[in-house]
Input
Amino acid sequence: MASFRKRNGGWRAEVAKLGVRDSQTFDTKAAAVAWATAREAEILAQNGKSRTTQSMTLSEALRRYKRDVSPAKAGERWEVLRLDRFDRELEWAGELMSRITSEQVAQWRDSRLAKVQSSTVRREMTLLSSVFEIARTEWKTCLVNPVRDAKRPSNMPHRERRVAPSETSALLNRLGYVDGQPPQTMLQELAYAFLIALETAMRQGEILGMTAQWVNLPERFVRLPMTKNGSSRNVPLSMRAVELLTPLYTGKGASDRLFRLESASADTMFRRVRDELGINGLTFHDTRHEAITRLARKVDVLDLARITGHKDLKSLMVYYNATASELAQRLG
Output
C-alpha cells in the first residue's frame, strides 16, 4: 500500500509494489492519493495482473456518476457542482472505493459541519451515498457503502417563517410594482414572481421557468411538466393568480417564457432589497410556507398535497405554519 507524507507545503506519495518503487510530490493529499492508486494499477498491469472489478477510485466513480446518472435528474446542476467539489476537496477521492471507510466519511462529515449547516451536510451525504450505492449494486466496484455506516447529522428545526402583510407592502413598494401593468424592470418581475408565489405556493424556479404554453387561463391552471420531485403537476389558479398572470401572458408565443428573470439573479436581488428594507431573515422560499398555510384554510389536506406536489403528507406539514391565534379564530 502506498504511503503519504506532508513535505515542504505539499504531499509526497511513495509506492512500493512487486519490487517497484516510485514517488512524487503533489500540492494536495487528494492528488497524491490519486496518483498512487493509478501508479499501483499500472505496476500490476505491467506485471500481467489485471485490475479487479473492485478497483475503481472514488474520483472515477464521481465522474462516471456525473456522466451517466446525473443528466437524468431534475437537479442535475446541483449534483454536478457538488460532485465536482467532492472530486476536488475529498482527501480520499483518489483512493479505491473498496478501501474507503465509514471513519473517513465521519471525519469529513464533522469537518463540513464546522463550515455549513447540518441540512447541507445531510444532502451531501445523501448524494455521496448514492454514488457508493450504484457503484456497489450496478458497477460492482465496492462491496459496502461506507456512508450508510456514518451517522447523519440531526435535522435542524423546521422554518416557521411567515410573510407579514407589512413586509409584502414594503417589498412591493421598493420593487416598483404596479398592479395590472406589465413589468418593465427586473425588479418589477421579481414583484410579480413574489405575488404569484404567495397565491399559488409554486417554487421560485417553477414560476420563473414558466412558458406561455404551460398556462391555461380559461381553465385556470398551470401545467408544470417537470418539478423538483421528478414528476409533473397541475397547479390550480385563484382568480387573483389569473389577474397576476394575465399581463405576463398577454402577447407571448407558446414557447416564450413569461419572465426574463433567472433564479440566481432573483435570489441576489431579493436579498439585497430585503436587507435595504431591514426585513430580518425572510427568504423567497418563505412564500411557500405562507401560501400553503393560507391554502390550508380553503382545501382539504389531500387536495393541498396535489396543489403543492408533496407525495408525503409529513413533508407537507413542514410548510403548514398556522399560528395558535389563527387556529383559535377558526374554532369560533
The first strand starts at residue 3 and ends at 7. The two ends are 74 Å apart (CA to CA). The beta strands are 3-7, 10-17, 20-26, 215-216, 221-224, 233-236.
